[in-house]
Amino acid sequence: MSAMGLTYFNFFQSLKASYRRCLLYPNGGYAYRDKSKSRCYSVYACSKKPDQDVFLNSKFDTLLDSVKWDEKGLAVAIAQNVDTGAILMQGFINREALATTISSKKATFYSRSRTTLWTKGETSMNFINVYDIFLDCDRDSIIYLGKPDGPTCHTGSETCYYTSVLNFLNQSQAEENDLAMTTLYSLESTITKRKEELSVPQNGKPSWTRRLLLDDKLLCSKVREEADELCRTLEENEDKTRTASEMADVLYHALVLLALKGVKVEEVLQVLRLRFSQSGVEEKKSRKAQG
Amino acid sequence: MSAMGLTYFNFFQSLKASYRRCLLYPNGGYAYRDKSKSRCYSVYACSKKPDQDVFLNSKFDTLLDSVKWDEKGLAVAIAQNVDTGAILMQGFINREALATTISSKKATFYSRSRTTLWTKGETSMNFINVYDIFLDCDRDSIIYLGKPDGPTCHTGSETCYYTSVLNFLNQSQAEENDLAMTTLYSLESTITKRKEELSVPQNGKPSWTRRLLLDDKLLCSKVREEADELCRTLEENEDKTRTASEMADVLYHALVLLALKGVKVEEVLQVLRLRFSQSGVEEKKSRKAQG
């Protein structure tokens, strides 16, 4: 089993595991048999088929009973991208919606307007594949942590949160698509915009990002230089703030390189997630094979 | 103004801007005067003082009217860490709670049980400092994108989501603190655990992470090597999957270095956020000063 420990990454391992290695777990989940250690590890996505047995499980009922459903039998559900952390959408769930999601691993909600269960993607095919579910301290709010098959919003937007209140208040015209983005993705988006503007002639001194985008040699020398400086903070026992600063430099310059190659941060994180869902042995092999 | 463009990063610029440079914006926000271009850019956190003028603004009322409040006058509010993307907590808001948050920049909710307004942190002092607010497509759900002053949960947990439903179903004993974490932070957490286990003698071959943690020379040679390989995917025009894979290697090895130095990814992202909130000139100066 993975030298990196058992985390939700392990759910992915199952996608590769053959069904022969999948045993029905007593509590309704699945177990992954590690031949080398003759032990079973619990994983949940061995099969993407809805597992009806899960409904028979008493622990399952205990869990559903433990949710603090409101007077209408509902709780809040937030779908979040497991790699980027982007909040994709928010809906409501009832007992049946949560049970269906646990069983099918597709984010399922209860529509208050249509008074019916609905699985996100049932018409658009843009399902949200759920890898884990988290309850909050009050047990009346949950996170579906998963990977969307495509844009989540019915408008075609990546997420449903694309209207900035502060920009609306501050600007005469609201931005068309002002997606809620956290630091790394906001920086990625800015760099991507700079790349798209490369063909537009510019007055004055070009920005540092523009210079890097126009000069592969400069960019690569900076990526190597910043990685070296990051290492030196360890080798020369420099203080923590210096390490954070050099790592920020590494990230920024690497993001420019990714933008040039047309690679998204999300793709990189997906590689990491899949890699650390493999066994330690597999992981080392794959690293060797890569380079 | 910043060569990196106007994003929510600019809100931070204001924290450094002197009040002399802050002008009350006609719509109730603040403006940042860019001397070099004699233009004003809107920013919102010039002052952390509640801005009562904002209430006078008609655009502000238009916004509050546009929210699809439910039959109880409520909407869902999700607080998210601007740097890590972690969902901190979820509550409900009424018109007054949203107005207060926009004005005070402290995440404020409406307590359904106590039927009163409450600002997260008013007793614990662990406020959530809000940098932007996003409405969803239905206008009945919002994100408070901000930075927490400390742990958000009343239990002392970093976020309120620390109970994994799938782990509960699959294990005889639930984990004490099974925080909802996205890919990068899950990997960071695993590496940190490996670091904590270093003093524990281990049977068998050590994991790759353990080896790196125990050998600075090996670790630094890997960080430099992976950065070099990332660059070569650009220089030698290799395909995108190769770039994503090499960047994953850079990230993983750099995360081990950060763990050794006791630096969190969140600290690095904060550096990036603050850096790109500065003007292009300031940013270049600070880079020069750093290295």
Automatic annotation (TrEMBL), chains A, B:
Coiled coil: none annotated. The keyword Metal-binding does not apply. Pathway: Amino-acid biosynthesis; L-histidine biosynthesis; L-histidine from 5-phospho-alpha-D-ribose 1-diphosphate: step 3/9; Amino-acid biosynthesis; L-histidine biosynthesis; L-histidine from 5-phospho-alpha-D-ribose 1-diphosphate: step 2/9. InterPro entries: His_synth_HisIE (IPR023019), HisE (IPR008179), PRib-ATP_PPHydrolase-like (IPR021130), PRib_AMP_CycHydrolase_dom (IPR002496), PRib_AMP_CycHydrolase_sf (IPR038019). Gene3D superfamilies: MazG-like (1.10.287.1080), Phosphoribosyl-AMP cyclohydrolase (3.10.20.810). It catalyses: 1-(5-phospho-beta-D-ribosyl)-5'-AMP + H2O = 1-(5-phospho-beta-D-ribosyl)-5-[(5-phospho-beta-D-ribosylamino)methylideneamino]imidazole-4-carboxamide; 1-(5-phospho-beta-D-ribosyl)-ATP + H2O = 1-(5-phospho-beta-D-ribosyl)-5'-AMP + diphosphate + H(+). The keyword Amino-acid biosynthesis applies. GO terms for molecular function: ATP binding; phosphoribosyl-AMP cyclohydrolase activity; phosphoribosyl-ATP diphosphatase activity. Keywords: Amino-acid biosynthesis, ATP-binding, Histidine biosynthesis, Hydrolase, Multifunctional enzyme, Nucleotide-binding. Residues 89-162 form the Phosphoribosyl-AMP cyclohydrolase domain. GO terms for biological process: L-histidine biosynthetic process. PANTHER family: HISTIDINE BIOSYNTHESIS BIFUNCTIONAL PROTEIN, HISTIDINE BIOSYNTHESIS BIFUNCTIONAL PROTEIN HIS7. In the N-terminal section; belongs to the PRA-CH family. In the C-terminal section; belongs to the PRA-PH family. This is Phosphoribosyl-AMP cyclohydrolase domain-containing protein. It comes from Escallonia herrerae.
